[in-house]
Amino acid sequence: MSTDRNAEFGDYVAARWPRLVRAAVLLGCSPHEAEDVAQTALTRCLVKWGQVRRADDRDAYVHRVLVNSFTDSRRRRWTGERPTDALPDHGEQATDETEQVDLRDGVGRALAHLSDDQRVAVVLRYYLNLTEVQMAETLRVAPGTVKSRLSRALAAMAVDPVLTDVADSQTGRGA
Amino acid sequence: MNEHDLVDALEDHAADVTVGPAPVDSMTRTATRTRRRRGALGGLVAAAVVAVAAAGAVQVLPDDGAGRDAGRDTGRDAAVPPADTDVPPAGHVYVGMGGAAIAVPEDWAAGDVECNGVPRQSTYVVDPPLAQCMMFSVFPDDTDTVSLSMGGVDTRGWTPVEVDGTEALRSPTETGEPDPTTGGGPVTGASVFLPEQGVVFRAQSTVSPASVDDLLAGIVVLHDHAGVPGFADLATVSSDPRTDGRYLQRLDDAGLVAEVVRRSDPAAAPGTVLGVEPAPGTVVPAGSTVRVEVSD
Question: Domain residue spans in chain B?
Fold first, then answer.
């Protein structure tokens, strides 16, 4: 049984590892920390692989464990500082015209400005491509909660100077 | 930025992250250790809780017959440590597979079913084989049965429940129609599946629907014991006729030690599990040796 399980687990990990690690980075982990979080999550899943295998939606199960592992890691290092890769960047530097700020850097900073709940919602919806229904299941919250977290997150990002400046510059600000 | 831009931006931002190879081996090793440790630790914690209740340690080996009663009276419970937690309720024995067991009345027969799987009397069936014949028979009145098998069940529509502190799924309780042509009463049945232990328990009753609930309420997670796993399903779920490797893995998962005995059997393909001793369903202390007969 465990041989089958390990083989199946190996296949699953091979397919999903990079995306799970990157999702953890988007959630606010440093790349190194992200690998730890993904590893913790997948190990937990392997312990209960029977449950994962029988879950209606295997990815949703794994995503839930990933989010929980991320939350746990935050809780443990709560007194520590946040990863510097996603350091919030306040206004002036980001708008420095000599600095090449493009959308991909801006989005990392904008994510860092969100609350943990909002950031999780954005990553699940727009990076792991979950539907709102799957998100509600993954996060074990009401579908309405998912909707409101997403819409607040999008509203916050829409007015985040990091992103609006980038958008402005891309649409030819100052022309 | 619109949602589409956001998807692209996240994708690009994430793509900048260099991801190392997945440490699959490390995860596999940790998971195996966790599973083992969890078993041992659970035993310790629970031991402290039930130490008082366990004063008169009860023999938990449901031998098929005289051995059981003899064991109770002749101190064979010496095999059970004083702080044993896996003690069945009075008048019951545990029948289990891997990490889970169910309490059944000690006067029940083991596997007393017709070749079509219908019971002759209240009985527990471990590792139920597929129906061997098309014989017609009626589920007797006032009869309860319990059967145990390893996985292989469709749990769609089942409800999450908690059993002895672990997550489980329970099927809807179904009651058949009474059969006027045979005079048989309606049979009520329900199943509980413990995903982590991989065991399905099914209870059926012509006594009452409540009887099914009572039986299923006897499911426990074993701490320092393990049920000898079944092997009948291994031959049916896979086209591979060799069942020995998968069975030995099952024993290993259950924390039991295998002693393989080769025997030539012209009727069986090489590598077929022919039988195990103690029989599947027997609850033994963790780490016990199970003799596995394998065809040469």
Answer: 91-223, 227-295
